[in-house]
Amino acid sequence: MFTPTALTSYELLWYAAAMQARHFLAALFFAALPTPAFAQFAFFIGDPPPVVVYDEPYGPRSYDPYYNRPKVYREPVYYETKTVKKKGNKVTTKTQIKNQNGRVVYENKKTKTKKSKKKKK
Known about the structure:
Distance between the termini: 107 Å
Largest sheet: 3 strands, antiparallel
Strand order of the largest sheet: 1-2-3
Order of helices and strands: HHHEEE
Helix content: 25-40%
Oligomer: single chain
């Protein structure tokens, strides 16, 4: 880069004017770049942009035709739980299946007794 070391006063004036012109042109260049949409409203001249107001709020009613109807087309969700309890030589297994509302749809209880093996002599 050029640095003015041994220049006359006339040359220094030209150098300073060239620097000012360079910075001014750079500022014009960056000001002319496309700006984002939210920043373009600062340069908007004329009538304000039109505002659209809807009567009903945005929501599933506006795009889901089945919003107020029962959801027959959905598959029900079931949750299965198994509990195992041991008391002595008895083992009780309990299986419960609940639907998506928490109601018990199916319940099964099984009790097994462990038989002890006899020792052979």
